[in-house]
Every structure is written in structure tokens, then in C-alpha cells.
Design goal:
Order of helices and strands: HHHEEEHEHH
Distance between the termini: 79 Å
Strand order of the largest sheet: 3-2-1-4
Structural class: alpha+beta
Radius of gyration: 24 Å
Length: 126
């Protein structure tokens, strides 16, 4: 019977050519998920949205495989907008600068007034 050590092979002992047929590989460098980072124009747009509407609340949406971290602003009537932002901390700083409440969407969920607004928009004639 062969020795156990001769049967077992670790990844370190595997020939690199054998690894090239692996189905699941890690990428050598992390890729960007969205293609366009947050910029100053996005922040200016968000600030204008807050100034031009009342009762605006902010919600942090986490980074996903498709998009970077985003900030969602919802007005009192449910009108909403969303833009990319560098990080959850940047979203909190932005909200505090404009003296508006900010919530984590994973904890609070999407507000009902936003869903109602979307339903009203769908019913509107084109």
C-alpha cells in the first residue's frame, strides 16, 4: 500500500499548468463594479434635490456586485432619486451637512411612500 504522503498533494505542489483548467479562479486584481465613480456633480444634484423638496430623508444602499454604494433620497411625497457615493461614511457626512436623517436600507427597508409614488407614476397616462 502506498504511503499517505505520496497520495496527498497540496495546492503548493500542483503544477501551474494544471491550475489553468480550474473552473473557479480568483481574479488577480479586484475589478470595479460600476464603471463610473461618484463625482462632484452627483453631490451637487443631491443637494439641489434636498433644497427643492421638503421632508427629504436619506437611505444608504450597500455596494452590490452591480453597483457601488448609493445614497437614496426620498421626499415627503415619495419622490426619490439615487446616486453613487464613495462610501457609507461619505453618505452619512453628506446627510449630516444638510441636516437630514439618514438610515440604512438593510435595516429600515424602502419607505412605503416611495412605493406609493412609484405606483402613482405607473398609473399616469403617457
Amino acid at each position: 500500500m502506498p504511503n499517505d504522503t505520496s497520495i496527498r498533494r497540496t495546492l503548493a505542489a500542483v503544477d501551474p499548468k494544471e491550475l489553468s483548467v480550474a473552473w473557479f479562479r480568483r481574479r488577480k486584481e479586484p475589478s470595479r463594479t460600476s464603471g463610473r465613480p461618484a463625482d462632484r456633480a452627483d453631490l451637487e444634484y443631491l443637494a439641489e434635490f434636498v433644497r427643492s423638496r421638503r421632508g427629504v430623508e436619506a437611505f444608504i444602499e450597500p455596494r452590490t456586485t452591480v453597483t457601488e454604494t448609493t445614497i437614496l433620497l426620498v421626499a415627503h411625497d415619495g419622490e426619490w432619486t439615487r446616486r453613487r457615493i464613495e462610501s457609507p461614511e461619505a453618505a452619512r457626512r453628506f446627510a449630516h451637512q444638510l441636516a437630514m436623517p439618514i438610515y440604512d436600507i438593510r435595516l429600515m427597508g424602502y419607505p412605503q411612500r416611495m412605493r406609493d409614488y412609484n405606483a402613482r407614476q405607473k398609473r399616469r397616462p403617457a
